[in-house]
Amino acid sequence: MAKIRQNCDGITEIVHAPGDILDYGFDRTDWLDVGETIVTSTWTITPTLTLTSPQISGAITSVVVNGGTLYRNYSLTNTITTATRTDSRTMILVCQNKGL
User: Fold this and answer.
1) What is the band of 43 on the pLDDT scale with cuts at 50, 70, 90?
2) Phi, psi of 29 (to 5 degrees)
3) Disulfide-capable partner of 61 in 9, 41, 51, 97 (CB 3.0 to 4.6 Å)?
4) 81 to each of 2, 17, 53, 72, 89, how far by Cα in Å?
5) Is 80 exceeded by the pLDDT of residue 1?
6) What is the largest CA-CA distance in the chain?
7) 6 falls in which pLDDT band (50, 70, 90)?
8) 9: pLDDT confidence band, cut at 50, 70 and 90?
9) Distance, CA of 28 to CA of 31 (rounded, Å)
10) pTM of the predicted model, to two decimals?
11) Whole-angstrom Cα distance, residue 87 to residue 48?
């Protein structure tokens, strides 16, 4: 099970091991207005890692993150647009080995 916490800025931090190939995402169900749909979803990560398989499934956006360097933090940001609005959200991937 992933270790997840909120930092002092309210941003979600998730432990991501160097060899992990995992999907991460955001659920915008509570943010979208009734009848509003996500038109585009783009992902960025800093520093750079391989991102693959971006998806939009209703109000949920996701992407697969591959790898990482031990003890480095990665800022993973998703920006979506609807017909009238834009929203960006960020999570931090903390690259460290996972305990048993």
Assistant:
1) very high
2) -55, -45
3) 41
4) 29, 31, 18, 30, 12
5) no
6) 46
7) confident
8) confident
9) 5
10) 0.91
11) 22
- Torsion angle, CA of 6/29/49/93, rounded to 10 degrees? 10
Task: Give the position of tokens 């509003």.
Answer: 36
Confidence of residue 76 (pLDDT cuts 50, 70, 90): very high
**Rounded Cα distance, 35 and 22, in Å:** 30
The C-alpha atoms of residue 65 and residue 88 are separated, in whole angstroms, by 18
Handedness of CA 82, 36, 93, 13 (dihedral sign): positive
Residue type, 80: I
